[in-house]
Amino acid sequence: MNLLALITYLLVMSITPGPNNLVLASSGVNYGFGRTLPAMLGMAVGLSLQVGILTVFLGGLLALIASVQLYLAVLGCVYLLWLSWGMARAGAAGEQGATGKPMGFAGGLLFNWLNPKVWLMGFNIAVVFLPRHMAPLQAGLLFAATTFVIGLPCIALWAGTGVAIKRWLASPRRLRAFNCGMAAMLAATAFWLLVQMLPSHLLSGVGGLI
Fold this sequence. Notes:
Elements: H1 3-15, H2 19-64, H3 69-88, H4 105-111, H5 116-129, H6 136-160, H7 162-169, H8 172-197, H9 200-209
């Protein structure tokens, strides 16, 4: 397993603008960091559990259909490239309406399970990064812990600096530079993973052509 690539992927996906981060940024502005903390912890725990469960489930399934794992992984990398393209073309973050009270821990825990983007992220992690020689349960625990450790500081950054981030993203030039930079990192990760997953005889053939 390429742990560095996994960390890079989680870092990019966790720190870029999205529903979770925008909700936390708005809550940080309206209610402060302390009152936003329960929702933030709920989102971090919920995402970690989701990634772990999907890894265990898909890991057991892929053990029965190992012959198609490479093709599924390639599709996952294609999705990363498509996501990076959409990220580079993303527009300004929308305004979040104020609510009567901040989201609690349970709300944060369930928030990711209702977010289609997070579902795709979890499937992608399980399919692309699952080690071939690691038990699905062990990989699920590892992925869940890694997701929590990487994701929590990223979403805490949005919650703690909501006002500054929203003002910074309001500048079209800075927003485009930020999105393009994150998109380039995500695309580079996809190509890196694709090269490492290709069979050695294919890589040697490409090297011979070059």
